[in-house]
Amino acid sequence: MIPGVTLELILYTTALGLVIIGLAGVVLSSHLFRMVLALVIAEAGANLMLVLSGYRWDAVAPILLQRAEQPTMVDPVPQAMVLTAIVIGVGIQALAVSILIRIRQRYGNLKRRDVAEKMDAEIAASAGIRRDISQDAPLGERPLSPLPAHTAESRGGDA
Amino acid sequence: MRNLTGLLFAGGLGFMLLAIASGIDFGSPPMRIGEAIQSASPQEVGAANIVTSVVLGYRGIDTLGELAILFAAASAAGVVLGRRHTTTGTQRKGGFVLFHGGALIFPFLLTIGFYIIFHGHLTPGGGFQGGVILAAAFFLPLLARPGARLHHSILSVIEAFAGASFILIGLAALAEGQAFLQPMLNQDTLGSLISAGTLPLLYIAVGLKVGAELASLLSNLAQTESEQ
Amino acid sequence: MIFSLLDELLIFSAATVLVALILGRGLAVGWMVTILYGGQLLVLLKMAALGYGGNPIASELSLSVMGQDLSWRFDALSWFFALITLVAALLTSWFSCGEWERKFKQQGGNVWLFHLAMALNVFTMLILLASGDLLSLFIGWELVSWAGFLLMAVAGGVATNAAIRYITYAVVGGMSIFGGIALVYAAAGSLQYEAILIAVEKMSTGQLWMLVLLFGSGFGIKMGLLPFHLWQAAAYAETPGPGSAFLGAISSRMGLFAILLVLVKLFGIVNIDSLKIPFTLIDARDLLAWIAVFTIIFPTYTALKQNDARYLLAWHGIGQGGYMLLGLVTANSLGAAGGLLHVLNYAACQAALLMAVFAVMHRTGAADLNKLGGLVTRMPLSFLVLLTGIIGLAGLPPMNGFVSKWLVYRSLLEDGMPLLFLGTIIGTLGTILSVYKLIHNMFLGQLRVEHEHVREAPWSMMTPMLILAGVIFVTGLLPGIPLTWVAAALQTIGLTGPEITLGGIESSSGSLDMIWVIGVLFAGFGIGAVIFYSAGPSKRVHQLDNYAGGHFLTADVRYQYSDNFYSGLMHLIRGWYRGSFQWLENSITSLVEFLSLGMQGIYRRANSEFYLLSTALFIIAWVVF
Amino acid sequence: MNNLVLTIALPLLGAFLLPVLMRLSQAIGLWLGPIILGYGCWLLGNLWFSDISLPLSIAIGGFDAPYGINLYLDSLALLFAFAVQLLGLICWPYALNQDTARRQALMLLLVASSTGLALSGDLFNLYVFYELAAVATFGLVAASTTSAAYAATFRYLILSGIGSVLTLLGIALIYSHTGTLNLAHLAQLAPELLHDRLGMTAYLLILIGIGVKAELFPVNAWVPEIYATASSRLSGFLAGLLSKLALLIILRLLVLIFDQPEAVQIVLVLGILGVISGEFAAWRAKDMRRMLGFSSIGQLGIIFIALSLPDERGLLALLALSLHHLVIKTGLFMLADGWGGSLERLTGAAKRSPVGAALFTLFALSLVGVPPLPGFWAKFTLITELAAQSEPLYLIGLLVFLLATVIETSYLFRIVAKLYSSAETTTNQPEHQNMPGLSLATASLFAITLLAATVLIAPIGDGLQAVAAEAKNAELYIQTVIPATPGGQL
Amino acid sequence: MSEVELWIALILGIMMLSSAVLALVVKNHLAAVAAASVVSLGLALLFALMRAPDVAMTEAAVGAGLSSLILALALRRLGLWQIDSGRENSNLLSASSKGKDDA
Fold first, then answer.
1. Which residues on B lie below 8 Å from A102 (Cβ)?
2. For chains A and C, what is the number of CB pairs under 8 angstroms?
């Protein structure tokens, strides 16, 4: 084995690698379903990291046996936390895909950009913002609006 | 361009995190509370599986929160997907193996699930793992016979009372003048099935809750009717 | 708890607000409110000792909020400003009673809201004037700003736009003051005047500069000092009649009051004098003086261009503020007295003028100078009031404006500041030209057909106007009376006033006695009249007996020389009207719009996770390196 | 004082049982939630006036901190916990439709988790409650059942999911370095173990993760779309309270564990950016809900600036600003119930709903900080404190804050002017402007609170000062939670 | 720790990382789900290696089993269920490719 490469190094590289791949995946995917997958992968990485934080290389699993002498055990607390985290993760994932199903039904596809645009359009439409005016067009009324023509005339320019 | 920047950024972040994490002494954690729990747990909680005593004892409210999250996710999925009691015609009938295998495997899964739940305080496994298996047990027939449907009302009653009983067990301790979720009943012999006080009860509640929650989630996903 | 006189005044004022609020929908609310203003004025007069150097009167009310002590008290300066405020409120409210109200209601105006806004303005101004520390000053300041906003917005429509513009400027000013207060608090650890006076001694030049700039621009915005003057004309002009007269008379002067209190009293003219602008010969005080002079010149000449009587007067009012500031920053006895006296004189003139304009508007429905003319035969009393007002405003004897402007000129000459003096002379020239335009286009020349049957303004409007005209004349004849108050007020901010006689001032370098001046003037008029009437009968012709340019016009074609008034002069000075301030304002607005577009762009990007990633990267990189 | 835990346990219990109860008897089901929340209010309100000496620490399950999870109750936590229960009651989803049971259950979960966020003294437990709040929020937003709501929820879910991964990573880093999760225990260990690059990294990861909910600048892109699609009551709860609770976590971290200047500076910089981005974006917003969303980003930015102030008065400013924003924003969102659409449509709306317009004006005035209203005092405390700092970055913060106020005035009063404008537009669609009576009544409640606070500002100010002093006292926190070992190591 | 454990961890780590990448770049959604479940399975094995049997069981049941089931069900509902590598264009590296509808 290559010197310097320890089990811990492999493990935390794997953990961080998973998180980063997941993160990059979320940022880069153009398809919403892949974003869910990426999130799942990132969560896996975080879970690994958490277990790793309680891991001892010289210890056994934290289960008491009817023996006189108890050997050293790994830290049980992170394991309990990871149990929680895993279940949380799957709950969120299930919710995410159910929302995806609805989005797919309503918008017809799951392209990230497309969905964002359609959502924007729908929000604008439901707010009653006229579509013929794009979001980028000036509001037409400024807070310091120039006075209407008849007064502007008499007010004149100023020095 | 965006792809490249994203990759670069992610890579940079990963590199920095790696560099920083290399400062940690992995493999020999400080275990400030871990060791204390290990030594105190047999007396305080009495479960052979220390993870269980942490999950249900020391960090019991985390578990409660987690059950609530599952419940929230299932409810939210229910809100999103709507609960349709009709089956969809689009699903193909499951294959022969799935159909009969499912029928065969159902009691088997049920047994395993409950076994894991009941032994949660002794051996690895417990409410979560057992609950998932229970969910699978109830879901398999659905996959095998698309026409079948889960009894949602029964499921939701289980869901409700399993969750409620977890809290009620906790509240019972409160009513006794102890702290919320404080383990009660006597602990008995470490390592025997009837031991660790209320912990097995809690795990049963967890198992049923997780099972019911996941089953309803799965069936929701499987039975959603297309709106189009 | 025993109420002090100040408490009585404030309670009275608050009660006025309540009456306007609760009974405002009923009949004759105007009269009720007017009487209540009169009551407030009476209470104020009970405090008259203040005007002659009496001890300050404190309010029993004091609060401590979040470690800040708040207190209120009245001294001679406050009393002087409060007197002007309440007289203006009383007369303008009187003006609004009866006929004006009725017509306002007919045109869809909300009389209830109008009276409420007026009462609120008066109340908040009194609170501001009564402030006993910097924090209560700021509270009063903001209240006045927002009450002013309410009054300006009452009319709706164009007025709302003007009001929004005003409040934007006012909040900019308010925030600038707020920032200044924060810095003062950081330096002094308290906002009590005593603590600040001590802290100012220890401040570095940089700090002092910062504070002078922050407070100066903050208060200056309310005064309409030069780069910040754009909001004022439209906001005042579009306010409903009496409100416009009230705001025009006193509102901006709250800025002057605050400048006096903070820049002069707290920071001290000496300290401000010591703030040199690097690489130039001028210091902060010169800067203020020059700003004052330009504030006199530019808006006055802008006023010259206006064709709407209200706008003309409103623009004009901005310019007059410059005289007051100029007089006060000279800070010698004559100049300071002149500047402060001008507050009163100007208030009287401006209120009288605006009332006269609104009286004409009430009868004719027009404020456009090109659509008026010849009304002297129909509304002679209004003409008289307007005439009194413009003589006062232009600074000519025998009216009060002469006294205050004379004092300011005199102080400039004495201090050896010929350039500033020249500036004021140019300004005065513009004033004379523009007020002449006003009176000519409204009252002189030919009467228009549609105005044949116009009657004199109703007495409910005429009486306050005549009272004001009387005030203008009396304070011109006997400037000693207000000058005594002015001297007492100056003492409270650490300046000394001149020697005062009933008819003017006594000074080693040259005295002024208005009784003599006016005596000589009227003697001159008498001689003129004798000559006029002894020269034999003059021939009267009908007003429509036109003869122009060698052509006989038929009687139905009116020849009214008002359109493109002063065209020659305008042509000459056109180059100066580049609208650069307007341009500045527009470009700031565009900048905000541009930025806001960009910021919305950030939030509308499809990929929000990217932000998360990059932030994580950058801030962790920041930690690592 | 063990029954404090009821404020978390009972809503959870109610949520679990609600779907079944609702099927048994709708009447019982409909009353269950409000009764539970009312009881929570009563319990916490009683605590406030009782003679129990705060702060106190409650060990859950009888396992003393730092081994078990504890609830830490000081005045600050009590204040927020009470606000959660009360606001939960006020923003309760009364509307009946086919999902009533689920929505009410989710709301109960949201309240339970928010209370937990206010009270919990354990890092991982906070994370669990945070996730619960997130999931409940997703469900409630998605309950609007519009397509846009689904899309917005999904985007929020992913962003928040990534945030939780980072938070979890941060927690793992902290745990691997210290071996504990209890905040008080961490506070004891922090000077020795966490004031280094690693601790800082962990803090930043948690900050970004939690920041998603707290509307921290670059991770708040969900805000406008969620507030535009969720129901107004929910938006009010989220903007008004949940963001503050996330902030509270960051506050606890800063006070107890990461009291280093760098930790605070990041918050300051992001806060400043948040103010700029939020207020400028709001300036051009064309519909009420998104305007409120952007404005809430700006306000939270200001609160983050206050969070970065090092001393007690800074915390006072933070508290005052938070509570003020809570009242105002929730009130404004209530008004958005009727006026949620395009701003153009609001022209002349004051005629149809004079009370609504008056309330809007009042809220706007206080938001801008017009003196006698409480907003002024909050802002005053903030700026005097900002000016007192020697660090130039704080002066930039001051400047940005003042600028933001101007912009805020500009856009808010443009709307006020529109409300009172007499001109009718052609695009006018009056059916969108019928203000629901319930929302109006709720908004009036907030307005009354605001006015009462205006009158009672002096005692409130003193009370908040005491709360701030208590919350700023890290030593007190440690002593309360781990009394056995005064200042020593475990 | 033994040499064997090290090798196992190394192989598992490489496998997990590569299937994680695969899950994001592969064109077929079903294959992506499968790759993701490989990650979970590897994780479960790693947990077992790290003396965390509870976590390992949970991860195997929840991560590898349930989660894959959910995703697979979702794929059906989303109409992305395709056994053969189709003409899907929705993966990581095709962000800028011709925008075919993915339905």
1. 80-81, 227
2. 83
Q: How far apart are CA A72 and CA A59, in angstroms?
A: 5
| Residue C615 structural domain | 580-624
Predicted TM-score (pTM) of the model is 0.89
What letter does residue C332 receive in the DSSP assignment?
S
Task: Parse chain E into domains and list their residue ranges.
Answer: 24-80
Query: Per the CB < 8 Å rule, is C612 touching D461?
Result: no
- Asked if chain E contacts chain A via 3 or more Cβ pairs within 8 Å, the reply is yes
- Residue C326 and residue C438 in one domain: yes
HSE-CB of B203 using CA atoms within 13 angstroms: 35
In a domain, C483, yes or no: yes
Contacts of A17 in chain E (CB under 8 A): 13, 17, 20
The shortest C-alpha distance from B176 to chain E (Å) reads 32
Show the domain range for D180: 2-481
Handedness of CA D81, D86, D91, D95 (dihedral sign): positive
* Chain B residues with CB-CB distance to A76 below 8 A: 34, 37-38, 50-51, 53-54
What is the residue extent of each domain of chain B? 2-223
> What's the pLDDT tens digit per position in E5-26?
888 888 888 988 999 998 888 8
Instruction: Report how many domains make up chain C.
Output: 3
Separation of alpha carbons D447 and C231, rounded Å: 32
β-partners of residue D287 are D342
Confirm whether D40 is domain-assigned: yes
What confidence tens digit (pLDDT) does each residue in C36-53 have?
A: 899 888 888 888 888 787
Please report which helix (H) or strand (E) contains residue D23, including its range.
helix D6-24
Q: Is residue C551 part of a domain?
A: no
- Chain centre distance of CA D187: 24
Residue C557 lies inside a defined structural domain of this protein = no
> Dihedral of CA B132/B133/B134/B139: which sign?
positive
| Inside any domain, residue C184 | no
DSSP SS3 for C248: helix
Domains of chain A: 7-57+75-129 (1.10.287.3510)
- Nearest Cα residue in chain B from D123: B62
Does residue D486 lie within any of the structural domains? no
CB D229 within 8 A of CB D237: no
Counted domains in chain D: 1
Is the same domain home to C289 and C230?
A: no
CB C334 within 8 A of CB C407: yes
SS3 state at C192? strand
Give the residue ranges of chain D where pLDDT is below 50.
426, 428, 430-431, 486-490
Whole-complex ipTM:
0.86
Q: How far apart are CA C215 and CA C196, in angstroms?
A: 14
Q: Does A68 touch chain B (CB under 8 A)?
A: no
